[in-house]
Fold this sequence. Notes:
The structure holds 2 protein chains of 2 kinds. Among the domains of chain A are: about 5-75 and about 150-225 and about 320-355, P-loop containing nucleotide triphosphate hydrolases (Rossmann fold), CATH 3.40.50.300; about 245-305, CATH 2.40.50.140. Helices cover about 25% and strands about 30% of the residues of chain A. Chain A has helices at about 40-50, 90-100, 105-120, 135-150, 165-180, 195-200, 215-220, 225-230, 290-295, and strands at about 5-10, 20-25, 30-35, 55-60, 65, 75-80, 155, 185-190, 200-205, 210-215, 235-240, 240-245, 250-255, 260-270, 270-280, 285-290, 305-310, 345. Chain A is elongated, with a radius of gyration of 24 Å. Residues about 320-345 and about 345-355 of chain A have low confidence and may be disordered. Chain B is mainly α. Chain B has helices spanning about 10-35, 40-50, 50-85, 90-95, 100-105, 105-115, 125-130, 140-150, 150-165, 170-175, 180-210, 210-220, 230-235, 240-275. Chain B has 14 helices and no strands. Chain B is globular, with a radius of gyration of 23 Å. Chain B has one domain: Orthogonal Bundle (MetI-like fold). Residues about 275-278 of chain B have low confidence and may be disordered. Classes of the chains: A alpha/beta, B mainly alpha. Chains A and B meet through strand 6, helix 2 and helix 4 of A and helix 10 and helix 11 of B.
Amino acid sequence: MSISLDRVTKRFGVAFGVEDVTAEIPSGALTAILGPSGAGKSTLLRLIGGLLTPDAGRISIDGEDVTDVDPRHRNIGFCFQSYAPFRHMTVAKNVGYGLRARKRPRAEIAARVTEMLELVRLSDLANRYPAQLSGGELQRMALARALAIEPRVLLLDEPFGALDAQVRGELRTWIKELHDQIHVTTVLVTHDQNEAMEVADCLLVLNDGRIEQAGTPTELYDRPVSEFVLRFLGPSTTFEGTSVRPHDLVVVPAGGGTPAAVTEVATLGFEIRVSLRLDDGTSIWVQSSRAEYDALGVSVGDRVGVQRRPGVSSHLVPPAAAAPTEPDGAPVFGVDEQRPGERGVIDAANLTGRQS
Amino acid sequence: MSVAAPSASRRWPLRIVVLGYLAALVGLPVVYLFVKAFSSGFGAFWHEVSQPGSVGALELSAKIAAVVVPVNTIVGVAAALLLARRRFVGRRFLDLTFDVPIAVSPIIVGVALFFAYAERIGWFGPWLLHRGIMVIFSPLGIALASMAVSLPYVLRSVLPVLIEVGEVQESAARTLGAGPWRRFFTITLPAIRWGVLYGVTLTLARTLGEFGAVLIVSGNIQGKTQTLPIYIYDAWDQNYDALASYAGAVVLALISITALVVLSILRGRERKLHVNIA
């Protein structure tokens, strides 16, 4: 069940709107909408879910234009950031709500609720009320409730936002496993790039209401089309006037590369962060492995050289060369005459990892 | 948890002030009323209560309440939904308008209704009379006056609850396939039910007890347009029949007190059932 967004615009005045968004969200994959707060991520999700109506543009799910379809007829599963539990209903009643609204036979509802509660491991809590549940349990209940209606797509708004770090990590892994099990097209919104990189098959990076870039996590990390994407999706430092990943630089003995002095060395277990000052006064930092650093044998105050790591893939790619072109010459990744990376098209066939 | 309780010497003066205040304003007068009503024995009390005038007044009051409470409950909940969930021009104005009938003296409400609907001099009176509808000096006028003076109670009890629970549960129900009526009855109404019940209780108490506005529009026709409060006033002021007036007052007070007690019992049970429901 793929989702197509065609020049979708929704304006609110100040922030949180989306502007001329065109994207193709592949069927069966787990896609993360990623961006800073106010970028319009939740707005985009709500537009797909039908809780908002676009000012312009069309939205279709699996080829069917749903732009003017009420959310209750879209057959989508929507999980709210606050989980939106029905407080006066037990967990089981919550999960069965969508089926009761569809007037399914009682026996079918009971069976489906049991099945869903097993899936999200809440069978023991079936007769509890939401107020008696922890945040993680509420999140799972909300998922079971959304999945019970066998939605075409599952939409999750900041699914881990309100949880503490440990529960967050567990739930992240669990959602990934769950998705492997049921394979429903899933779109989640997050502002946490690590979360997005870990969980998602595809990323849609949003900035100020526009799509900066869309693609697999690896593609976006290794071949960002803009400074924004590069900076947003991982560590960065500025070298020779451009942003680079600190692990794409290497410290070499004095005499090689650009001359610099070591100002600080931080050991983070296996990783070493070397801060340096170039002779022109600018500060940069380099990420290296412990073995590499030990072999170099330098310490704070020493004079060294810095250069790009030979043969690395990660660098800022000019938009036109951002991605291989398809046989007919159309770019796989969004290239627009005015603004690079505005159109986000993710080719399902290009997905790496467990989807293939 | 471990906040130290104030010492006895500091607790007692406050208690005495509060209890004394309540006793002077509520306790003593009510006790006095009951004592007086039963001063000639239960038989005499029952004799007064079962007089045709008294029974007729109670009946009319009950009929008026049976119309006013449901109508004002539906209007109040609808207005609360409108004010909490929609943004529109004139929203603030509508919000304020609901409070006008209780902000002004009930006499003003009565006089205003009189001038609007009186059969000869009123704005709509002649037009309505032409169609056979008499508002003033009829039960219809009493119902209108009662509706006006109890207009905001349901709205004011429901609106804060509605704002507090927010819209997200309704949105969730919508994505799960529920239509507007199902959303209202399965999500919204259960969430606001205590606010609604509280508002209903207040509406009932005010409707049964309203005197000023009703007096103006009713014309005080014995056995026809006399509600219980007017019957009590009439017995007191016109007929110098103190016992009839005490007996009527006790009946009226008992109905309202019963409503409040029932509400508080229901609330207690709800808390016990769903201890953790916020």
